[in-house]
Amino acid sequence: DWIMGNYIEEAVARIREQVGDEEVILGLSGGVDSSVAAALIHRAIGDQLTCVFVDHGLLRLNEGKMVMEMFAGRLQAKVVHVDASAQFLGHLQGVTDPEQKRKIIGREFVEVFKAEAAKLKAAGADVKGAKWLAQGTIYPDVVESGGTKTKKATTIKSHHNVGGLPEQLGLKLLEPLRELFKDEVRELGVALGLPPDMVYRHPFPGPGLGVRILGEVKPEFALLLQRADAIFIEELRATIDPATGKSWYDLTSQAFTVFLPVKSVGVMGDGRTYDYVVALRAVQTSDFMTADWAELPYSLLKRVSGRIINEVRGINRVTYDVSSKPPATIEWE
Ligand code: XMP
Questions:
Q1: 49, 62, 87, 273: which one has the fewest Cβ atoms less than 10 Å from its Cβ?
Q2: C-alpha of residue 331 to centroid of ligand 1, in Å
Q3: Which residues are recorded as binding ATP (predicted)?
Q4: Which DSSP letter does residue 74 get?
């Protein structure tokens, strides 16, 4: 049976044996899988691991700071923070098509990561340079991309994957979570000392706010959306459902805010406003293939709406998305 302490010891021993005294690079996204992989590999080989955190400027509010505090701060791991927001936003300028935006973000991500990895690999100062690329691949990913083609025939949204990267970089692949299911990855993360808040987070798409700002991604839209979304998430975490004793964050599978590049009229004090609209989205699902919109309490929606409109100047209207999947998708793009 599953005894986490023993599992960690075995996994650590396996990683040490595999890697020896060579250096490892890992792409840290702030998501559960790469975070747990980083914590486990760091436990095994300490400073032989360098994490590369590519910040595309389309993350949640303060995400970059949190990732750095957690990994560079608390875990004392080597982390390179690449602030590539100007580069990503530059390439996205004038682009409105969702698939095009995904492609650009995916491509830039690979470019930036490759450049950083090449630098680390060439770094003579570190004696050898990296020989391994670590990824937080988990068992369901292995099954999905393996010989057994369980993939859908039609691709609704092209999720950018980083396949082929190790070959392109001339690195060996290290995937210590390959045998684990999501629940096990989460348990492992907690056992490794990662905060449960981080380990039990809702999923966040690779292209991030790039697909939650409808149409053209403008830096000022991203700033408004980050602030509005932070309020929504904060209130979901703070609001406990009396029937279950759980927070509405834990009662939903995914919840986020969408920025609509549409202006509507409002009134504030004696004045007329003409500002942007956001939509709140919260769903319950077991597999993300189908999903129901969550019946959040009106009192919660009211508090979120009031706070967003009062605290985020530039947004004067909040709506709630009551569409299920299918026929709507979870994300708006
Ligand atoms: P949809 O919108 O297709 O989303 O109902 C299903 C799940 O997939 C996530 N999603 C993405 N994840 N890259 C990702 O890494 C993407 O391009 C992408 N698009 C959607 C979405 O957040 C939800 O969990």
A1: 62
A2: 6
A3: 29-35
A4: I
- ipTM more than 0.90? yes
Distance CA 72, CA 252 (A): 30
Question: Could you identify the residue written with the tokens 């706010």?
Answer: 209
What is the per-residue pLDDT for 38? 98
Among protein residues, the one whose CA lies closest to atom 22 of ligand 1 = 205
Ligand 1 atom at shortest distance from the alpha carbon of 158: 17
pLDDT value of residue 147 = 47
Torsion-angle region of 108 (φ positive above 0: left; ψ -120 to 50: alpha; else: beta): alpha
Residues of the chain with pLDDT under 50: 1, 147-153
Residue 2 has a pLDDT of: 64
CA 249 to chain CA centroid, Å, is: 16
Rg (alpha carbons) of the chain, rounded to whole number: 21
Domains and CATH numbers, the chain: 4-199 (3.40.50.620), 212-320 (3.30.300.10)
- Pocket lined around ligand 1, Cβ cut-off 6 Å: 102, 156-157, 159, 203, 205-207, 254, 288, 325, 329-331
Check residue 96 and give its pLDDT. Answer: 98
Judge contact between 30 and 197, C-beta under 8 A. no
Over the stretch 100-115, which tens digit does the pLDDT of each residue have?
999 999 999 999 999 9
* Spacing, Cα 150 to ligand 1 middle (Å): 17
The C-alpha angle 96, 97, 102, rounded to 5 degrees, equals: 105
Cα three-residue angle 80-82-84, rounded to 5 degrees: 175
Classified as helix, coil or strand, 286 is coil
Q: Is 85 annotated as a binding residue?
A: no
